[in-house]
Task: structure prediction
Amino acid sequence: MTHQLKIILSDLHIGPGDGDAENPLEDFTADDDFARLLADIAAESETDTKAAELIINGDFVEFLQIPAVDKFDPRAIYSPAMYRDTSAAASVKQLKIVIDRHPKIFAALADFLRPDPPMRRVTILNGNHDANFYWADVQNLLRDTIGAKGHRRNCLQFATTFINRDGIWVEHGNQRTEKVNRFPDFDHPTDPGDPTRLYLPPGSEFVISYFNVAEREAWWLDNVKPFTSLIWFALKWDFDLAAELLLGFLAHSPGLLAGSFAVGTEDAGAPNLISQLEDDAQRSDLAARYAAEPAVRRDIHRQIAALLQPFGTPQPARAFAVTEVGDNPLKMAAAEQNAARGVLSSAADAIIKQGKAKAVFFGHTHHTVFEEIGADGYYINTGSWLWSEDMSDADSEAWMRLFTQPEAFTASRRLPYARVDYDDDGNPRPQLLDYSGQGFPAPETRRLGFFERLQQWIFRLFGAA
Result:
């Protein structure tokens, strides 16, 4: 056990590539870094005669922003229908585009694999943006591309919901956080009404129908997680953008919205707010009053909170006093982000306390975390390889710059990953590292405070539906 090494990363969101033309739907630019990281790990494996495993914990490929076409033009604007086909055949077309436009990524994976001691292998877990790896045809295309066939077949493995072995638990996390990104059955993510296609959660449908258009004007929009927090942040700086985001989101999620109203969780004024936002004149008047009158802000916040409640992260602790609706949208945004992160932290705590693993790894939130749990447990979130400014603790000036000068953030990309070594007793000893060399702006290691431990206890007691 001591002679093995695991590398865990997540949320690369590799898309259709820039190539020779700018493609606003491509956020991944770290092809060379990815190849160097794998080469470094392979070299260490050879030198130390140490088995190595690369675990890609979800959202490896950004299928939601790749059109299912035979000949891809990065300059073309494709209709939502070209992104919405989730059949095996369409998914193969999408992956072929990524393979063609990111050759260094797949060459590096091919070079990394080694079937003989010291064995090197790759395990890919599904995320909510790349459930397409469920299809055997998609898996076989990747096998063919990196040579994971014949005597090298066992060097590439696929998993859907989680892996639990060697003292670690690895799971993407979308099934535990926002309802809008959940699948009815993530082990079998097909559409209940059509088993030849994948289910598209409302969040995925919104990416296809809205973000794939909006990103051509504001590339950074879909990098703010969770999406519900983006609406609150936008309210602070751009009322029209916030209105467009909210209306677009509700338009593509009618099932959840109708269901929430059906059980009586709606705010009585929420439908009226929707009609006001849909009318240009009323929206303009509402924006002016929102900016000038704290009471109007509080009322609008209350209505928006009611509208977003069905889509957000379950918060069983809310009844014990989380954040009251006030007139500051930045506090509401922080509450949304903290809820998503808190659910995963609480889930990791429960998994470790139940003796299922010593170290738990999630992704999905794009927010790096390293927490010590108990005497010998760890929760790590491996964040994302996209633009890396962590805005969770940013002040109003930083958020203003993001909305007015987003290009200032494009060069700031950390490349977080987890490294797991093992002690002589076979216990995992994880580290959270940054391959970019910048390090992390927040403390990498901390023990939970009293109120965080209390929140975790509440989550374990009541569960998260």
Observations:
- The longest strand covers residues 51-57.
- The chain has one domain: 4-198+205-214+336-462.
